[in-house]
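Researcher: Let's do a round of design. I'm pasting the C-alpha cells now; please hold your answer until I've finished.
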C-alpha cells in the first residue's frame, strides 16, 4: 500500500517523520510520501530536512520514503515559481492544497496548480469539468481523500474524473495517528464515492506509478 500525502511536525502534523514512517509501516504500507505544508516562508527549511531524512532511512530495510511538499494557501500567481523552487530544493513530489470546501483557499488555486503540472492536486473541492479535463491533459492526479471535511466532495471529484478519464489517487492526508486507516478498509472510501472495486485497483496502480518515478 502507498500513501502520497501526509504531514509531520515540520508543519501541522503530530508525529516526527520517524514515528510517522513507523506507524504507516506497521499498518501495512510499503511507500510513504511526507508532504508537509509549505509556502515562501518555509520550503527552504522543511524540504532539505525531509530529503536528508528520507535518504537516510531509504538506505535501511523497511518502508520506502518520498520527500515532498504540499504548497498550501499560497496566492495562485505564486504557484508556478514555488513548484519550480520546490523541485530544485529536492522535493520528489509536489502537491498543491486544492480548493476544499472547508477552508478559504483562494479561487483559481486548482487551475494554477494544474497549469503548473504539479504531481497531485489534493482535495480539489468543487473542481470544474474544464479543470478536470485540463488535469488529464497535464497528467495531474486528482486526490480522493480520507481527511474529514475535505472528503465531503469526494463524490463530485470521482464523478467528473471518471467521466473524463483523469487519473485519481486515494490518500489519507494524515496529521495524527488516528488518521492512518487500516489497509483492509481503504477500498470503502472509493466505493463510497460512487466508484467500483476496479476503480480502486486502478488508483493503486496510479500510486505505484508515481512511487516508482519518485523513488531513487
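Researcher: That's everything. Go ahead.
Model: Designed sequence:
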Amino acid at each position: 500500500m502507498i500513501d502520497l500525502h501526509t504531514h509531520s511536525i515540520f508543519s501541522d502534523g503530530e508525529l516526527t517523520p520517524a514515528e510517522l514512517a513507523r506507524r504507516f509501516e506497521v499498518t501495512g504500507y510499503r511507500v510513504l510520501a511526507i508532504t508537509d505544508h509549505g509556502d515562501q516562508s518555509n520550503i527552504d527549511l522543511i524540504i532539505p530536512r525531509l530529503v536528508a531524512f528520507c535518504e537516510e532511512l531509504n538506505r535501511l530495510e523497511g518502508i520506502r520514503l518520498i520527500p515532498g511538499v504540499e504548497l498550501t494557501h499560497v496566492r495562485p500567481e505564486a504557484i508556478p515559481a514555488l513548484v519550480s523552487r520546490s523541485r530544485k530544493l529536492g522535493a520528489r513530489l509536489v502537491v498543491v492544497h486544492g480548493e476544499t470546501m472547508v477552508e478559504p483557499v483562494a479561487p483559481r488555486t486548482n487551475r494554477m496548480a494544474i497549469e503548473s503540472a504539479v504531481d497531485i492536486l489534493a482535495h480539489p473541492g468543487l473542481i470544474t469539468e474544464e479543470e478536470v479535463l485540463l488535469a488529464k491533459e497535464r497528467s495531474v492526479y486528482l486526490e480522493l481523500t480520507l481527511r474529514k471535511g475535505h472528503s465531503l466532495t469526494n463524490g463530485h471529484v470521482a464523478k467528473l474524473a471518471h467521466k473524463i478519464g483523469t487519473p485519481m489517487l486515494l490518500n489519507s492526508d494524515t496529521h495524527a495517528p488516528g488518521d492512518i486507516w487500516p489497509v483492509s478498509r481503504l477500498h470503502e472510501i472509493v466505493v463510497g464515492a460512487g466508484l467500483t472495486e476496479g476503480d480502486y485497483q486502478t488508483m493503486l496502480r496510479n500510486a505505484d506509478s508515481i512511487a516508482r518515478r519518485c523513488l531513487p
